[in-house]
User: Which sequence fits this backbone?
């Protein structure tokens, strides 16, 4: 049924008269499978379009559902495609398209979630977005909060299931303070929100977020700005500071390693300690440490 209460009509629609309102990129392998299936057995499910009048009088249509099928027909050289024609508004067409993407869960996270942000910019409140997309209001509100802060890396991690949404929001709430972020991680661990692999993933994401920034240029197009001498100087200064931080971490790690090597040398000089280790089958060291504890060779 459509907005006028009339059932949708199945028609053959010229492909060049259809406009995609919510385009998204596709995995090449998946797209090739779609093309192959349609070529072998035909179109099992028609696409959905809604008509729009034009000043020239030429009939045009907005694509509501079925972008992959439409592209496959075009790739096969077809000029028309079976379509269900429904009468819906531009906003309802966009929402129907977004809902299909959410149901499939095959689009890239930021494309999917940018659609949620689009709905907010169109004036929809989180509750209305949740009702129209089938997502929970808590999830919608949390994602919008992350997007508002430019936390694209955290958004991707949440959508991929690497870290839970509430843990991501705790990280954002901690601000830029390393100490506050570590405290947030500790609290998330103690409360059971972050455990095992998720905790390791969260630490890795935070480190990348710190060194590479909150946004992910690979997944979301970024506004290109003019390069100036001052911007180059700032970029150079940031890179220098990042390199200095890496050097400090390396020096600290080296000092700890020297301390461990010195301590092991003293312990292995104690015959009673060595005999105890031998009795437990622990008298050997990893090659990397052994070469430093006994520069001239292994222990006697």
Assistant:
């Amino acid at each position: 049924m459509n907005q006028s209460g009339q059932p949708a009509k199945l028609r053959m629609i010229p492909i060049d008269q259809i406009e995609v309102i919510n385009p998204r990129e596709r995995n090449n392998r998946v797209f090739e499978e779609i093309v192959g299936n349609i070529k072998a057995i035909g179109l099992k499910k028609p696409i959905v379009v809604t008509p729009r009048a034009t000043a020239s009088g030429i009939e045009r249509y907005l694509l509501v559902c079925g972008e992959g099928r439409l592209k496959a027909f075009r790739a096969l050289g077809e000029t028309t495609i079976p379509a269900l024609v429904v009468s819906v508004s531009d906003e309802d067409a966009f929402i129907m398209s977004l809902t299909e993407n959410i149901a499939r869960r095959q689009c890239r996270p930021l494309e999917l979630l940018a659609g949620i942000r689009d709905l907010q910019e169109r004036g929809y409140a989180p509750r209305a977005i949740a009702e129209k997309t089938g997502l929970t209001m808590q999830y919608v509100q949390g994602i919008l909060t992350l997007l508002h802060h430019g936390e694209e890396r955290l958004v991707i991690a949440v959508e991929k299931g690497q870290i839970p949404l509430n843990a991501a929001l705790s990280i954002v709430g901690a601000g830029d303070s390393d100490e506050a972020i570590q405290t947030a991680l500790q609290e998330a661990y103690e409360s059971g929100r972050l455990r095992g692999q998720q905790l390791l993933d969260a630490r890795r994401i935070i480190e990348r977020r710190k060194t590479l920034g909150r946004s992910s240029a690979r997944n979301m197009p970024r506004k290109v700005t003019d390069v100036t001498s001052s911007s180059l100087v700032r970029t150079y200064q940031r890179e220098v500071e990042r390199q200095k931080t890496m050097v400090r971490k390396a020096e600290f790690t080296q000092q700890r390693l020297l301390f461990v090597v010195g301590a092991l040398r003293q312990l292995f000089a104690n015959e009673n300690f060595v005999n105890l280790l031998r009795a437990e089958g622990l008298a050997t060291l990893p090659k990397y440490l052994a070469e430093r504890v006994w520069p001239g060779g292994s222990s006697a």
Observations:
- Residues 229-268 form the longest helix (40 residues).
- The first strand starts at residue 9 and ends at 14.
- The beta strands are 9-14, 18-20, 47-52, 60-65, 80-85.
- Confidence is low (pLDDT under 50) at residues 218-227.
